[in-house]
C-alpha cells in the first residue's frame, strides 16, 4: 500500500467518527482497543432488543476492561468480521480500501471477539418443517373428505392442504410424512402441523405426531443503505457469487454459521438455510460490518 | 458322450454323441452318421456380445463422438471471438473435465453445446478477457436462462471461480459492434469508434458511481451509454431527433427495451450534475442536458462535490432535526475525491452520536421499519439505487401474532370446519365422476 493510500485509509476511519478527537500522532492501536471494549459494554446494556443467544458470543474477558469514556462507532468494520469467519480469508480483514482491496489490515489487537450490535433484527418470513404422522394414508380419501385439500396425482404425489390460522400450507404424502410451510415462527409452525395432524386424525387415520423438525428458516431485513455489490464480490470472492446478468442480488454463502444470504443493492438482505433462529441472528451480525464497509465507497 | 433322450431321425437309434471335434458343435448319430442337430456357426450369442460396447476397450481408445464434436465447437467459438491460444486451451480442458461429469454426460446435444459455450465464457473471465454471457448466448443461439443455468451448474461441479467482469471493460467491445463510422452512415451521424468508446466509458463510470449499474443487466446500460455518448458528441438536430429505436436500426444492433429506462436514469443523473455548472443559465432539462454532457463528464468530480454540498444544505434547511435522526445516508464517493469524502464525513458526523443516542436512532429506525415504507431513505439522498427511490408498495402486513407457544388447545370446531359433511362429500364425488366421464366422453 503506498503512503498516500495509507494516509487516506486512516483519514477515512478517523473521519467516520466525530467523537474521535485524537490527532494522528496518538497511538491509534491502544485507544481503539480500549474503546472497542467500552463500546461493547455500553452497547450491551443499552440494547435490549438483541436476544440472549447473541450476547453470549461476547468474550467474558472484555468485561474486565475499564470504561475509557471514548465511544466509537463501528469504524473498524473488519474487526467483527474476523472473529466470525473461520474461513481462510485474509481479504475479509480489510475494509476494502478502494485502492487495494486485498491488503490486510495491520493487526490492531489479538483477535478479541468484539460484538458490534447492528440494532437491526431480521424478521422471520417463512418456516419449513416436517413431521411424521406415523401411518400410511389414503390420499384420495383425504382429498374427498377434506374441504381444504387438493390432490392431482398426475402432477404431484401429495395432498396439498391449507389452514387459515396460522396461515400455512402442508404437503401430505401417502407414507404419512408431512411438510408444513408458510408459518412466521417456530411455534406457529408446530401449531399448524398439529392442526393438520388433527384433521387427518378426524378423518379416521391413526395419526401421531412424531419427529417434528424445523428444516429451514427464511428471514429478511433492511440495512437502509445501498451496497456496492461489485466491491463485495471482489473482496469476498470465495463466498460470493454475483452475476448481474443472471440475478440482481449477490449470493453470499457464509461458512459459519452455514447460511446463504441474498444481498441486494437496495440494502435488503434475505437470509436462508437456518435450522435455528440464533443462526440467522449470528449470520446477520457477521455480515453487517462487512456491508458497512462497502457503504462509503 | 451320450446325449440322452434324443432319437436319430434317420435310424431311430438313441446313440447320439456330441461331436466337438470341428469348430461347429454337432449332435451325430453313431450308427448312421446323420447329424441330428448343429450349433450356430457364429460364436456370438443371440442379441449381441456378452460385453457391451461401452465396457470394451474401444471406448477408451476412441473417445465419444459428441465429445469430439464439443471440442470442435469450443475451438470454433474461440476462433470467432478471436481468443488467444491460452484461453482456448483452458476452455478445452474445462470441457473435457465437465463432459465426464454425471450431470453433463447424458444430456441433450443442445445442452452439451451450451456447456461448450460456458467453458469458453469461464476461460475468458479467468484470463481477464471481458465478455458477457449475452454474447455467448447469441453465439450459441440459445436461451440466456438455459445458458445461465448450465453455467452455474458447471462452476459448481468443477469447483472453479470466475472473477467479476466490470462493465467498463466490456463496453469497449460492445461499442465496436455499432456500425456508425463514416463509411457506414451519413456524415452528420457518423462517429469515430475510439472517441465514442471513450465517452461511453466515462458515462458508464458515472452510471456506476450513481448506482445505476449495480444489480442490473449490463447490456441495456451499455446501449444507453453508447446512445447518449453518440448524441452528445455532436448534438446537432439530426442526432437529437433520432430515437433509440432508429439509432439501433442505423447502427444495426438489436435494441434492448430496458435501455430506454436506463437512458432516462442516466439523464437524470446528468441533470443533477448539470445544474451545478456555473455557466449554465437555462434550466437543465432532460432534453437540454445532452448538450452539456461533454462538460459534465470533464468536470464530474467537482460537480459531484458541489451537488452533494447543495443537497446537504437543502436537506438541512428542510428539516434540521431530521438530518440528525436519519438513518445513515449514503452519498456517492468518487474514488479520487477526498474533498467529497470529507463532505460526507462531515454530513454523517452528525449521525455518529454516542451509543445511547444511537440506540434511540435504532429504535426510531425499527419503528420506522415496522411502519409503512414512508420514510424512504432513498428519497433523502442525492444518489440512490432506483429500486429504492421508486420502492414498490408493500401490502400491509398483518401484525405478527404474539405469544404462540405451539402447544395450545386446538378446538374441535375449527378442525370440523375443514372436513366435509357426508352430503358434501357425496356431492363432490358425484361431480368428480360427472366431470371425468364428460372429459373422457369429449376426448
Which chains have the largest interface? Answer: A-B, 69 and 72 residues
Element-level helix/strand string of chain A: HHHHEHEEEEHEHEEEEH
CATH homologous superfamily annotation of the domain at 167-315 in chain B: Cyclin-like
Which descriptor suits the 3D outline of chain B?
A: flat
Number of strands of chain B: 3
Strand ordering within the main sheet of chain A: 2-3-4-5-1-6-10-9-8-7
The first-level CATH class name of the domain at 167-315 in chain B: Mainly Alpha
CATH topology of the domain at 167-315 in chain B: Cyclin A, domain 1
Estimate the helix proportion of chain B, in percent: 55-70%
Number of helices in the DSSP assignment of chain B? 22
Description:
The complex is a heterodimer of chains A (297) and B (443). Chain A is an alpha+beta fold. In chain A, 31% of the residues lie in helices and 21% in strands. A ten-stranded antiparallel beta sheet of chain A has the order 2-3-4-5-1-6-10-9-8-7, covered by helices on one side. In chain A, a hairpin with an 8-residue loop joins strand 7 (240-241) and strand 8 (250-254). Chain B is mainly alpha-helical and 443 residues long. Among the domains of chain B are: 7-40, no CATH class; 65-158, Orthogonal Bundle (Cyclin A, domain 1), CATH 1.10.472; 167-315, Cyclin-like (Cyclin A, domain 1), CATH 1.10.472.10. Chain B contains 22 helices and three strands. Chain B has a three-stranded antiparallel beta sheet with strand order 1-2-3, with no helix packed on it. The longest helix of chain B is centred in the C-terminal third of the chain and has 21 residues, at 422-442. Residues 325-374 of chain B have low confidence and may be disordered. The interface between A and B is large, with 69 and 72 residues.
Amino acid at each position: 500500500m503506498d503512503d498516500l493510500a495509507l494516509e487516506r485509509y486512516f483519514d477515512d476511519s478517523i473521519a467516520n467518527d466525530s467523537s474521535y478527537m485524537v490527532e494522528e500522532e496518538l497511538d491509534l492501536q491502544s485507544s481503539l482497543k480500549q474503546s472497542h471494549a467500552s463500546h461493547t459494554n455500553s452497547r450491551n446494556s443499552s440494547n435490549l432488543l438483541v436476544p440472549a443467544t447473541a450476547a453470549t458470543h461476547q468474550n467474558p474477558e472484555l468485561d474486565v476492561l475499564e470504561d475509557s469514556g471514548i465511544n466509537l462507532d463501528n469504524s473498524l468494520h473488519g474487526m467483527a468480521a474476523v472473529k466470525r469467519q473461520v474461513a481462510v480469508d485474509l481479504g475479509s480483514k480489510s475494509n476494502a480500501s478502494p485502492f487495494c482491496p486485498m491488503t490486510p489490515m495491520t493487526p490492531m489487537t489479538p483477535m478479541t471477539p468484539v460484538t458490534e450490535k447492528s440494532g437491526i433484527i431480521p424478521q422471520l418470513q417463512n418456516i419449513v418443517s416436517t413431521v411424521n404422522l406415523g401411518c400410511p394414508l389414503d390420499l384420495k380419501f383425504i382429498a374427498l373428505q377434506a374441504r381444504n385439500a387438493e390432490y392431482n396425482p398426475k402432477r404431484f404425489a401429495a395432498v396439498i392442504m391449507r389452514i387459515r390460522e396460522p396461515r400455512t400450507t402442508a404437503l401430505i404424502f401417502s407414507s404419512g410424512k408431512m411438510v408444513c410451510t408458510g408459518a412466521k415462527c417456530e411455534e406457529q409452525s408446530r401449531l399448524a402441523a398439529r392442526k393438520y395432524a388433527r384433521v387427518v386424525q378426524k378423518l379416521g387415520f391413526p395419526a401421531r405426531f412424531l419427529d417434528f423438525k424445523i428444516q429451514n428458516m427464511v428471514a429478511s431485513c433492511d440495512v437502509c443503505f445501498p451496497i456496492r455489490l461489485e466491491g463485495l464480490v471482489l473482496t469476498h470472492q470465495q463466498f460470493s457469487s454475483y452475476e448481474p446478468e443472471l440475478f440482481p442480488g449477490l449470493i453470499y454463502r457464509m461458512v459459519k454459521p452455514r447460511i446463504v444470504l441474498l444481498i441486494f443493492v437496495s440494502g435488503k438482505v434475505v437470509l436462508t438455510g437456518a435450522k435455528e433462529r440464533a443462526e440467522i441472528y449470528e449470520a446477520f451480525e457477521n455480515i453487517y460490518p462487512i456491508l458497512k464497509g462497502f457503504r462509503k465507497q | 458322450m451320450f446325449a440322452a433322450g434324443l432319437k436319430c431321425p434317420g435310424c431311430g437309434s438313441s446313440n447320439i454323441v456330441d461331436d466337438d471335434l470341428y469348430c461347429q458343435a454337432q449332435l451325430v448319430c453313431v450308427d448312421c452318421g446323420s447329424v441330428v442337430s448343429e450349433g450356430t456357426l457364429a460364436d456370438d450369442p443371440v442379441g449381441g456380445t456378452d460385453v457391451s460396447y461401452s465396457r470394451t476397450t474401444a471406448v477408451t481408445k476412441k473417445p465419444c463422438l459428441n465429445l469430439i464434436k464439443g471440442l470442435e465447437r469450443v475451438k470454433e467459438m474461440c476462433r470467432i471471438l478471436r481468443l488467444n491460444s491460452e484461453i482456448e486451451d483452458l476452455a478445452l480442458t474445462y470441457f473435457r473435465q465437465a463432459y465426464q461429469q454425471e450431470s453433463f454426460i447424458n444430456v441433450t446435444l443442445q445442452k452439451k453445446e451450451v456447456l461448450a459455450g460456458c467453458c469458453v465464457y469461464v476461460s475468458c473471465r479467468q484470463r481477464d478477457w471481458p465478455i458477457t454471457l449475452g454474447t455467448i448466448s447469441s453465439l450459441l443461439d440459445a436461451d440466456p436462462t438455459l445458458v445461465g443455468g448450465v453455467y452455474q451448474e458447471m462452476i459448481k461441479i468443477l469447483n472453479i471461480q470466475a472473477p467479476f467482469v466490470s462493465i467498463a471493460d466490456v463496453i469497449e467491445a460492445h461499442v465496436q459492434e455499432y456500425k456508425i463510422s463514416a463509411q457506414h452512415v451519413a456524415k452528420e451521424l457518423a462517429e469515430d469508434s475510439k472517441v465514442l468508446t471513450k465517452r461511453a466509458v466515462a458515462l458508464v463510470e458515472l452510471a456506476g458511481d450513481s448506482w445505476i449499474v449495480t444489480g442490473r443487466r449490463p447490456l441495456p446500460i451499455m446501449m444507453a451509454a453508447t446512445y447518449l455518448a453518440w448524441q452528445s458528441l455532436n448534438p446537432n438536430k439530426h442526432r437529437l431527433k433520432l430515437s433509440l429505436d432508429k439509432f439501433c436500426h442505423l447502427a444495426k444492433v438489436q435494441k434492448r427495451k430496458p435501455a430506454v429506462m436506463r437512458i432516462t436514469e442516466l439523464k437524470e443523473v446528468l441533470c443533477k450534475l448539470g445544474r451545478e455548472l456555473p455557466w449554465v443559465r437555462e434550466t437543465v432539462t432532460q432534453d437540454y442536458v445532452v448538450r452539456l454532457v461533454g462538460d459534465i463528464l470533464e468536470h464530474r468530480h467537482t460537480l459531484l462535490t458541489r451537488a452533494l454540498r447543495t443537497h446537504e444544505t437543502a436537506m438541512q434547511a428542510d428539516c434540521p432535526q431530521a438530518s440528525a435522526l436519519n438513518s445513515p445516508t449514503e452519498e456517492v464517493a468518487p474514488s479520487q475525491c477526498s474533498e467529497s469524502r470529507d463532505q460526507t464525513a462531515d454530513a454523517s458526523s452528525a449521525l455518529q452520536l454516542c451509543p445511547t443516542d444511537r440506540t434511540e436512532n435504532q429504535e426510531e429506525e425499527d419503528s420506522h421499519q415496522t411502519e409503512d415504507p414512508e420514510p424512504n431513505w432513498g428519497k433523502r439522498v442525492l444518489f440512490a439505487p432506483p429500486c429504492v427511490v421508486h420502492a414498490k408498495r408493500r401490502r400491509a402486513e398483518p401484525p405478527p401474532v404474539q405469544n404462540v407457544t405451539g402447544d395450545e388447545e386446538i378446538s374441535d370446531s375449527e378442525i370440523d370446519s375443514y372436513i366435509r359433511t357426508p352430503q358434501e362429500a357425496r356431492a363432490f364425488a358425484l361431480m368428480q365422476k360427472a366431470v371425468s366421464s364428460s372429459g373422457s366422453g369429449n376426448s
